[in-house]
């Protein structure tokens, strides 16, 4: 068909249009355009059928995610298989319980297990030195409060006995 003959639908022939420049100049890109910019959007599958890719997207243009990204390291793998010392945890919990609920016994347990955990951590290289140290310090503070409370109690018993009125 020549350029001067009208098309079969009865419209007048149109001369070819030159490409329009963009409204603003674009800088050249060092990266190729994404696949979605050069390909038309995929049509969704008919109702009831699953898309070939999740979300109906085209396959990735630059490889699969397994090729692009390395696997995340497992928790704690940067430090080897170091674990937290159990006695350090026991020391911290016992010392807190000794300060709040059971003043003398909890503090004694916290001090003993704290010193044992610090010794084990030095030998084995386990984690938990801060917890062991905190448990030991809180245990000693709890013991000091317990002893101070006993001293004040025994100091005020004679005073309380002399000030209580007796009925005769």
UniProtKB/TrEMBL annotation:
It comes from the Bacteria. It comes from Microbacterium awajiense. It holds the Pfam family DUF4190. The chain crosses the membrane at residues 87-112, 133-157. Residues 1-48 have a biased composition (Pro residues). Residues 87-148 form the DUF4190 domain. Residues 1-65 are annotated as: Disordered. Coiled coil: none annotated. This is DUF4190 domain-containing protein. Keywords: Membrane, Transmembrane, Transmembrane helix.
